[in-house]
Amino acid sequence: MNFYTEFYHGFSAHLNKSAIVLNDGTSWTYLDLHQSSGALAQKLRELGVSKGGRVSVQVNKSVQAVILYLACLRLGAVFHPMNPAYTLSELSFFLRDASPDLMVCRPEAEFELQDLMSELELSCVTLGSSGDGSLFENVTAQSDFETVDCEPDEAASLLYSSGTTGTPKGIVLSHQNLDANASVLVDAWGFSSDDVLLHALPIFHVHGLFVALGCAFKCGASMRWLPAYDVVEVRKALAESTVMMGVPTHYVRLLSDPEFGNRDVKTMRLFVSGSAPLLTETFEQFEQRTGHRILERYGMTETNMNTSNPLMGERRPGTVGPPLPGVSVKVVGTSEESVPAGEIGDLLVKGDNVFKTYWQLPDKNAESFTEDGYFRTGDKALIDADGYVSIVGREKDMIISGGLNVYPKEIESLIDRWPGVMESGVIGVPHQDFGEAVVAVLVLDGTADLDEAGLDASLKSKLANFKLPKRYITIDELPRNTMGKVGKAALRGQYAELFSD
User: Fold this and answer.
1) Of 501, 161, 92, 442, nearest to 299 (Cα)?
2) 484 in helix, strand or coil?
3) Which among 55, 110, 481, 485 has most CB atoms closer than 10 A?
4) What CATH number is associated with residue 472?
5) Which domain holds residue 159?
6) How many domains does the chain have?
7) Surface-to-core class of residue 344, CB atoms within 10 Å of its CB (0-12 exposed, 13-18 middle, 19+ buried)
8) What is the rounded CA–CA span in Å between residue 109 and residue 105?
9) CA 301 → CA 54, 185, 209, 254, 405, distances in Å?
10) What is this structure's pTM?
11) Which of 179, 209, 227 is the last residue of a domain?
């Protein structure tokens, strides 16, 4: 089995059809993608990438980046995408941990990475937004490359997610994980070769990479390809699309445009939202404005998609729907016995979509799965009498801002080293645009006044922009429970209205 082979089965009847159409009208057919990915897979092999070897990638969104992903699949290599916003210090950890065969970066970042590449004895090639750079040099879209056979449980991709300790964990997703999920979603959401998917998501995480591309490629659908989310461009593309996948922020920004409405969505059949909770207010406003009820679903990096509101049936605001076919979910109490319908507990999931292992972390594997094979998501949830799941909170203090995961401990560890700061608590609070905004609550030690501008500049040099606090607040002491742990829930409650005006 190879996930790419499953893609090919889906689009082989549509080889001369446009797979991806850019803003300027440039079109890539499925035959283009097939031939180019085969040629690039051969070049990767010549560059020293072996089956099972990691290819670490930090590039901007482009069709060529998709071809690189497909080439890695075909070679049996492990695709390791990274957010282009990650700083050098963040990259250093990922590359040391992943031990890749090859690094692919943007041309403008090559000089900055030179010393790190030399230290790690790692080869680096470049890929620009328009396909420029050294990666595609001497690569022509003609190849008889034979896709490598893989076992279902062999690794196809490596993505990183952090826990409350702030130490990133590598999540190994197999060919079976990716294929099982894509196959289920095509059926659950009614995808066909007649669809045109508006793709305005980044492709360094599950939503834009595995969910969106997986649904399109598995059935030979076309995609309207936007390099980034822009309300004006999205409204134009909607007129030529049938499906849109977005994060809640995308829908909030559409609604903020007073001219957005029914005339924009005449060809649309489905709007999907995920990566962060969709506010009931957004759901209701979108329906009033367009007549469409957004389909909200729930997934994780470790599992891809677990539940979904139905395509045909009631889409309930505030819920993420019933489990998808082939996925088993349950809510349990402290003894890990299922709780009655409507009661809150810990959400567990099981299925072929669920990963099997963290990268080089056997102890973490043991504590993340139950004896009967359920994955402990860390989310608090309830399941109603009709089987609809509602996510009510997270055991972990992870923040989801604009659909991207932010881990407080990583930011706190930097703030706590700043002159004059005794300790800090980083929280996420409701924000109309981002879903959650990062807020840093600080306690000073009395040795110096807070240099907020200096602290902010320091954090900008070490963290991606989406992790930066939107507000700094100083208080006399952080709330704590009887065990001395900082009361993040109390802080979130205290500042819940911070951005309400």
Assistant:
1) 161
2) coil
3) 55
4) 3.30.300.30
5) 3-187+195-227
6) 2
7) middle
8) 6
9) 18, 16, 11, 26, 10
10) 0.87
11) 227
